[in-house]
Amino acid sequence: MKKHISKFLFFITFLCSYSFEWPVENPYLLRLFAQKDGASVSRSLVFKDVEQVRASGYGKNLINIDGKSGSRFFPSTLGNAVVFIDDEGLQSIYANLSDTDIFNARKETESGSVLGYAGKSAWTEEKTLIFQVADTRNNVLINPLLFMPAFEDKTEPQIQNTVLINGDKQVLNPETVKKIRQGAYDLYSSIFDLSEKGGLPLAPFRVTVSINGMNIADLPFEVLSSDGKDLYLQNKKASLSLLYQKEGMMHLGKINLPAGKIELIITALDKSGNEKRSSFIFQVE
Would you give the distance in Å from CA 80 to the centre of its chain? Predict the structure, then answer.
């Protein structure tokens, strides 16, 4: 167990040593990595109001995707896309382009090089850019925000509508119910980030849960893996179908509440380091 944890931490440290540039001039994010997007989960960053698209880093042109024909390796929902791979096996994917003509002859790209223009070829909004990063050596998708430059964001994430649900499907609000029977409960909460006040709700970067100072859940939105049936956070520990099983809420885990005074703390963070903490104190009998 410790070996797997150490391997995962080394992997994340390795990834964080990378440095990419923003692929758009004004990064206005429409959807974040691992965010619930209708009936599916976003595997990308999606930028809004995009004109020119530039390379975030160096890469060799692996494949160009024509949105009209699709590909058996990449879903046609990407539309027109260009895919690059670097010497470490990291793929960068730029999708929803107006065309891929610029790479009919070019075989490589450098950071900042023009790749084309955003279009309406993919299954997404017009003038948006879908940007993915995949690690082919570890067969995972990576949150591109891990590589991006810091950006100013002073708006903290939001934590709302936290509930505990017992085996009898009884819904308890830990903010108003001060006495709870001991036992197992499913913990749900509506958690989202805002890039600006009044902006679109986005996925957080990390969520943690603690009981009486002991960390019992850690959900980093950093890496997505798959077993062919489901997507998982953090080395297949957290199923996204379970995480998003209730519309508009996140399943933060099944917790066992022993008798005594309980302080339940939920913490949400964004990539800029803004933190929101909600504390619930109640008695378990």
Answer: 23
pTM of the model: 0.86
Whether residues 119 and 178 share a domain: the answer is: no
- Tell me how far apart the alpha carbons of residues 83 and 240 are, in angstroms, rounded to a whole number: 26
Residues 127 and 172 in one domain: no
Are residues 9 and 88 located together in one domain of the fold?
Answer: yes
Q: What average pLDDT does the segment 93-104 reach?
A: 88
pLDDT mean over 204-222? 95
Residue at 208: amino acid letter: T
Instruction: State the Cα angle at 122 between 98 and 44, rounded to 5°.
Output: 110
Strands (DSSP E) contained in 39-125 are 40-41, 45-47, 52-54, 59-65, 80-85, 90-97, 108-109, 114-117
Q: Do 228 and 240 touch, CB atoms closer than 8 A?
A: no
Q: Distance between terminal CA atoms of the chain?
A: 34
Q: Is 169 left (phi over 0), alpha (psi -120 to 50) or beta?
A: left
Q: Say whether pLDDT at 54 is over 70.
A: yes
